[in-house]
Protein 1
Amino acid sequence: MDSTILWETDILWIVKVGSFVHMKKILNVISSTRGAASYSIQLAEALIDSLRVAYPGSTVKTVNLAEKHFPHLEESHIAGFFTPPEQQTSEHKEVLRHSDEAIQDVLEADVLVIGAPMYNFSISSALKAWVDHIVRKGVTFNYSEKGVEGLVKGKKVYVVESSGGVYSDGPRKGMDFVEPYMRTVLGFIGLTDVTMLRVEGTAVPGVKEQAMERALAEMRV
Ligand SMILES: Cc1cc2nc3c(=O)[nH]c(=O)nc-3n(C[C@H](O)[C@H](O)[C@H](O)COP(=O)(O)O)c2cc1C
C-alpha cells in the first residue's frame, strides 16, 4: 500500500472529524404565519445557512409556532408549574407536556434562532405563548439569596426581527418592544448572549425593496 496516500487520507479524515467537533444543534423557532413570503423566515434561513458553513455538520430542528400552537396559560398550567415534581399528578404532567417539550428543545440546542415578526409593536401572541411555556421556576430560572438566577446557560441566541416600519433609527426609535422584551425575558432564564438581526421597513415603499438586501449585508454569525 502507498503510505503517502494513506497519510493524506488520514489527514483529510482528521480535518473532517475536527470540523465536526464544532457542529451545533440549532433550534429554529418560526413565528411568522407567512411561510415562504416571510422576511423573518427568509433571514433566519440565510443565517442558518451561514451557521452551517461556519459549523459543518450542524443540525437544525424547526418549531413552527404558526402550525404548532402553544396554548395560552390557564389555571391548570400555572398549577402544574408551581407543583414540585414529586407531587405532580398525571393531570399536572399532561398539562405540562407543551412546556416540557419546549424546554427540552431549548436545552438541547447550542444555538437558538428565534423569528420575531413585529405585531403591534411587540412579538406575536404565538411567540409569546411559547415564551410563557419556557419560563418556568425551578426549571429555567430560580430564586436565590442573590436574586433571580437563569438556569439556561452557554447558548447563543439570534432574534430575527421583521417589521413593516423602521425602528433602528428615526421617529419610531423607542417604539420597538420586540428587542427589549426578548432581551429581558431571555436574559431572565440565562440566555444573555443575544444578537438581534433586523429586516425592517418591509411595508415602506422605497425601503422595502432593499430591506432584505440590507439585512443580509448586516448579518454576522
Ligand atoms: C397583525 C399585524 C400587526 C403588525 N404590527 C406592526 C407594527 O406594530 N409595526 C410595524 O412596523 N409593522 C407591523 N406589522 C407588519 C409586520 O411586522 C411586517 O409585515 C413583517 O414583515 C412581518 O414579518 P414576516 O414577513 O416575517 O411575516 C404588522 C403585521 C401584522 C400582520
Protein 2
Amino acid sequence: MKKVIAALLILFASLFLGSREGSAFLLDAECGRSLPTNAKLTWWNYFDSSTDIQANPWIVSVIVNGKAKCSGSLINHRFVLTAAHCVFREAMQVHLGDFDAWNPGQNCSSGARLSNAYCVRIDKKIVHAGFGKIQAQQYDIGLLRMQHAVQYSDFVRPICLLINEPVAAIDRFQLTVWGTTAEDFRSIPRVLKHSVGDRIDRELCTLKFQQQVDESQICVHTETSHACKGDSGGPFSAKILYGGTYRTFQFGIIIFGLSSCAGLSVCTNVTFYMDWIWDALVNLSA
Ligand SMILES: *[C@@H]1O[C@H](CO)[C@@H](O)[C@H](O)[C@H]1NC(C)=O
Ligand SMILES: *[C@@H]1O[C@H](CO)[C@@H](O)[C@H](O)[C@H]1NC(C)=O
C-alpha cells in the first residue's frame, strides 16, 4: 500500500509540478533510460537485430479479450500512449515488463503481479475527439489509464515526452516491433526487434496511400523489421542528449503501413499532439 501511495504521489507530482506555461520539462523525470540489450547474438538473430524488454522497458502490449491487439508506450506511472484505433469498447488490459508475449492473456484475469511484469486493467480510455470524423487515419491518438500506478524497474520504465517545446527535428527513428510479418502474423514472437526508419517526404506517403498525409503525421521508410500487425500504437523514438544524458524520446505512434508490412509506414506526430496529451492527462488526474 505504501508503495502504491508513493507511486501515486510521484504521478501527481510529475503532472502538476510543472505548469504548462513557461519552460520545457519532461513529463516524467525518470524517463528514457534503459539497460543495454541482453539478447544473445546467436546466428539466427544476429541478422534480424533482436532485442529485449530491458532495452525497451516502455513497450506495452495492449490486450483485448485476452489477445494482444496492439502496442503502446508507457509515459508515466499511470498512463499508456497508443493509437486511437487501438482503443476498444471491450474490457482492456495492458502488459508491461518481461511478460510472455506468446500468452499475453495469461494471468491478466487474476490481476496477479508477475515477476518483472505487470498486467493491469484499463479504467479510463481517451481517444482524440477528431478521430474517425474526417478521415480514418487522422487524429489517431489515444491514452489508456491503468487502474493503478506501476513502479519502475529495469523492465518497466517510461519513454520521454517533452512538454512545452519540440525536442529536435529528427530524421532517423528507432522503432521497436514484435517482428511479425505479413506472411506470419498468427502469433506475436517473444522477441522484440529493433529497426531504423528514415523520415521521408510526406508527399510520398500521400501518393502511396492515396490520402493526405499532413503535419500531424510522419511518413517513414524502414529497411528491415517493418511495423506490422500488432505493432500499431507502438512508439517511433530516438535517443537524444538531454540535460547531459542520452534518453529515448517518443516522436511517433505507428498507425498504418502497406499490407505487405514492408517499406513505407505512417505514424502520428506526437509533437503535434503534445498539448492534447497534456490536457488529457491533467483532466484525467483531476
Ligand atoms: C499464471 O497464473 C497461474 C495460476 O495462478 C500460474 O500457475 C502461472 O505460473 C502464472 N504464469 C505466470 C507467467 O506467472
Ligand atoms: C510534427 O509536429 C510539429 C509540431 O506541429 C512540427 O513542428 C513538426 O514539423 C512535425 N513533424 C513532421 C515530421 O512533420
